[in-house]
Amino acid sequence: MRTILVLSPHPDFVETIRAALSAEEYRIIHRMNADESEPLLVHGIASACILDIDLMGVQGVWAIEGIRRRDAKCPIIAYTTDTASNWEEEAFLHGVTHILTTPVRPRLLNSLLERLWSSPKYRATAPAPMFNPQPPLQFARPLESDTSRFTNPGQMLTLNVLRDFSSILTHSLNADAMLKQFLSFLREILSINRGVIFLHRPISPMEAETLPPEGARRLHTAAAIGLSTGLLEHLELSLEGGIGGQLMRLGRILRRDSDEARMDAESQKEFELLGAQVAVPILDRDSMVGVAVFDGRVTGEPLVNAELEMIFHLLAQVGLALRNIWLHDQLAGNNEMMANVLRELNSACVVVSRDLKVLHANKAAQRHFGRKNQRVGLEFTDLPQELGAKIFQVLKSGAAMGPYRYEPENSPGTFYNITVVPFQRGDSPVPISALLTAEDITQTEHLRRLEVEAANLRLIKSMADRLAHEIGNAMVPLSTHQQLLAEKYNDKEFRKSLGQAMADGVKRVTRLLNQMRFLARDERAEPLAPIESLLAESYEEARRHLTAENSKWELETGENKPVTISGDRVSLKHAFAEIMLNALQANVKEPKVHARMQIVTGKSNTPNLQIEIEDNGTGFTPEAAQKASAPFYTTRNVGLGLGLTVSRKIIESHRGRLEIVPPKPGVHGVVRVLLPMEPALSSGEKAQQES
What average pLDDT does range 487-501 have in this prediction? Predict the structure, then answer.
């Protein structure tokens, strides 16, 4: 008889499989998922696995992976309501033998199973036993006939103690229950009359701030046998003196009648109050975590040294267990604290395991992603499809994702800042879970848009003021001449002045129009511009806007070969003209522009052409050097303050950079331009390019 493991959350599907297969040939075992069927898969009990899954999502693939991790050879037949080519391919790649669609067709299923059994790969083999057939390890008392093997009766007692000591481990995460069980255990094997255990519990930093110094060194009652609770409620030991101080200093067993105890009045008083005869330190290899105080036997006899040695070593194991319990409690407390913190955060936090189960979802996550009137906790399917895909990708790749902005399709105008972080265990690259954080930035985004709109309005206002001022300055001479035109038209000097005023007004308005046009222009052509002639033409263009006739122009090219710049000639000419006009205006009495060209290497080891344009003025002030290329910044009474702004935009659109050289006392102002360089083409190359 073969065993068929059916994994399905639907009982009706399982009954359909039972009806389709012969009960004499197949034994049907139903489990909800791969976790519940782990013993059957790990030990090879199942001959085949029939899986009822939905291949339209990632959960089906994870279910198949869960089966394959536990049994790499078991054939898998997957039933699904519908198939999608991408997920169907994923299922086959993860080891599915066949994919069938519901409803179940008995003849087809029996035929597929018969083919599986006839295949050499899946021939029947004897199933491995579910559990190890070896008998469990038992701790039995030695038989009477075996006691002759022990020359010392203490050896037999030691074995009996070790046999029963493991019983207290059932309380290994409950310190109080473990200590009570331990004292009962000692009474059973040693007939102890009374005993009490005092512990020095670890103190948190917050408690240490509120406790007095002596309070941090106190030993409090943890468990007792044979003593009244009323006495122990008001009795504490100290690590500074008495029994606790003696054990802290000696680190060994202390008897009441020892020299150390007799000479210490506080120790004698504590022994007398407790009615005890001996004290044993509880160590955890590094420090003393407590004290155990005992009387003699119920018969009145004292405990012998061999028995005290055994108690000492057993208490050392108890000390290690206590340390582990305290560490566990601390971790559990930290985990609960973090869960509470996550629960109260305004950002949505969702922790998802590798099998796509939601391990934690705080209130914000329930509010943003949960269904209305949802009684159960948040499920993975409740998350938006886009976020679920991101989590699956992080769990698969182990790489964090985000932050990025996300706008739900069903809630336009709502924005989230999404981050997905994987959690690994140790050095393993495979994540065990992933944390999704979603910060609602809808209000922040709304405020940002309002700030942008306000900034745009302020910019428009500033631009309108500057435009009105600049155009007004250009119109004043024209308006003045227009008023005198009828009276002085026949005056030759007047007509000459009118022509000059009209020419100056046209130049100023044309420059203003060019600035606006280049600020609004994004696209550019890509012809090749020889840089030397381009700079000369830019200088001549700048001179047209200057009244002085004695300006000078110098170009220093060094030993560089002629180079060309890839870009729009008209745009670059205007950019350099604005820079040179700014240099000419630095000294209107004796304007001079000195340009230097050299080839430099950029950050990516690509050659760049560096052009430095120097004036002969007093240089930039620190404030002017910082704000020179900002819109509407000017140190003069005329102009819009857009010259270097337009130049910077044009240079950056050509993948270049414009910067003001940091000013130094006594040094002229320098504007530096960096542009990607292309070597000059030969005549043959030019002809080939033109063709």
Answer: 82
- Within 8 A by CB and 6+ apart from 117, the residues are 2, 123, 124
Which sign does the torsion angle of CA 234, 240, 242, 247 carry? positive
Task: Enumerate the β-bridge partners of residue 3.
Answer: 27
Residue bearing tokens 């630095």 = 586
Q: How much of the chain is helix, strand and coil, in % rounded to 5?
A: 45, 20, 35
How far is it, in rounded angstroms, from Cα 251 to Cα 249? 6
DSSP state, residue 172:
T
CA–centroid distance for 433 within its chain: 12
Distance (Å, whole) CA 33 – CA 21? 21
pLDDT in tens, 330-373: 888 777 777 777 666 778 889 999 889 998 888 888 888 887 76
Rounded Cα distance between 109 and 112, Å, is 5
**Alpha-carbon distances, residue 690 vs 186, 572, 621, 681 (angstroms):** 103, 22, 48, 11
274-326 residue pLDDT tens: 999 999 999 887 788 999 999 998 888 888 888 898 889 889 888 888 888 88
Burial class of residue 604 in the structure, from the number of CB atoms within 10 Å of its CB (0-12 exposed, 13-18 middle, 19+ buried):
exposed
pLDDT in tens, 597-637: 888 887 777 788 888 998 888 888 888 888 777 777 777 76
- CA within 13 Å, CB half, 160: 16
From residue 283, give the alpha-carbon distance in Å to each of 311, 315, 317, 377: 12, 7, 8, 45
Tokens of 530: 């020889």
Amino acid, single-letter form, for residue 469: H
Q: How far apart are CA 551 and CA 543, in angstroms?
A: 8
Could you give the residue ranges of the DSSP H alpha helices within 345-397? 363-369, 385-397
CA distances from 111 to 96, 104, 118, 125 (A): 17, 13, 11, 20
pLDDT digits (tens, 9 = 90+) for 161-193: 555 565 555 556 788 888 888 898 888 888 899
Answer yes or no: is pLDDT of 32 > 80: yes
Whether the link from the prior residue into 153 is cis, omega within 30° of 0, is: no
- As a whole number of angstroms, the distance between CA 577 and CA 119 comes to 84
Model pTM score: 0.39
Considering all CA atoms of the chain, what is the largest pairwise distance in Å, rounded to the nearest integer?
149
Burial zone of 554 (CB within 10 Å; 0-12 exposed, 13-18 middle, 19+ buried): exposed
Please answer whether residues 225 and 194 qualify as being in contact, where contact means their C-beta atoms are separated by less than 8 angstroms. yes
